Each structure stands twice: as structure tokens, then as C-alpha cells.
Amino acid sequence: MVPPAPVLTSGGPQPCRRPCFGWPPLCGPGAIKEIVRQIRLRDLGGIIVVDFIDMDERKNRQKVMQALEEAMRADRAPYKILQFNDFGLVAITRKRVKQSLERTLCTPCPYCEGAGYVKSPQTVVGEILQEAQKIARAVESKDVMLRVSPEVARLLKSNQNTYLQELEEILGRTVIVKSDNQLHQEKFDLA
Ligand SMILES: [Zn+2]
Fold this sequence. Notes:
It is a single chain. By secondary structure, this protein is an alpha/beta fold. It has 2 domains: 7-105, Translation Initiation Factor IF3 (2-Layer Sandwich); 121-190, Ribonuclease E, catalytic domain (Hypothetical Protein Ychn, Chain: A), CATH 3.40.1260. The protein is built from 6 helices and 8 strands. The strands form 2 sheets. The protein has a 5-stranded mixed sheet, with helices on one face. The chain is rod-shaped and about 85 Å long. The chain binds zinc ion.
């Protein structure tokens, strides 16, 4: 995310000459504090580009960097200030406080192992059908027990589809679906 860049001129109040988007131009010594205050207030994350115009002199650049570093120091969020480039831009990379709080207070979801997704019941049923094809010839019992998560069981028992019939045709046997709420949605047991 690159929020609109504030425009800042150094060396006391003077009119800002460049048009800018979003934030109004900030001028004078108070500008850096205001930029940092806004960053914190909005809890901005990602790369924040600050455009310091009329900052050709190296001495002034150093002063601005010092002031910026000082103002940012109180920030609770992890950040990094990248030096001026040739165009007078300073980039600040910052992790949002909320994000870093999540990091501190939470662990990756044990169910999806942090992926944020689990295989859908349809996908799991597809895998069950594949597995059935592999074991079909080896099955000797009169019927077959299929242990699945409640979500997958619900899908198999629904009369909106013919998965269970397909499965029984592949195996040539009656399949008894057992719903097990201790079972992970991606896992099944066909025996
Ligand atoms: Zn999860």
C-alpha cells in the first residue's frame, strides 16, 4: 500500500509548489511530527513514501532524517526508514500495530496450519473416490466403513449428489458412512 505522499518543504513556512494528492502539503519544522502522527493515527502499513521537496542540500537532508528518526522512535510498530533517493523521497516501511499484535498474541491456526484454507468437502470426496478405485480389488469384507469429518459426511449423505452411489459402485459394496467430529476435514478412513 502506498498512501498519498505528504509534501514537505524545509526551512520554515513557505508555499508548497507541487500539487499533491490526498494529504495537504505540510510545511515547516512541525511537518515531520505531523507526518509521523498521521502514520500512527491511521496505523499505516507497507511502504509509506514521503516526498521532501526542495531538499537538495545534504545538510538539510541529514537534519530531516534525524528529525524523522526521532519522531518515529516512539512508534510501537516495527518500522525501517530508508534513506533519501535522488528525487528527495524517503520511504518508510512499517508493519501495522494490529498486525504485529496478532503476531505476538496468536499462533498459526492449528487446523489449517496457518494456510487459511482447508480442502473443501468436495475435494475430500474426490480423494475418497480415488482411494476407493485403488483399494477396490483388495476389499474382501461384506461392507466398507468410511470414517469422515461431519462436513464430508453431510455432503455424502445429501441427496443433492450421487457421490455415495458412485463410491458403492466402485467398491461393489455397501458403504457405511461414519461421521467423526474428531476428524480433520481433510482426513478420511476407508476400510
Ligand atoms: Zn485455520
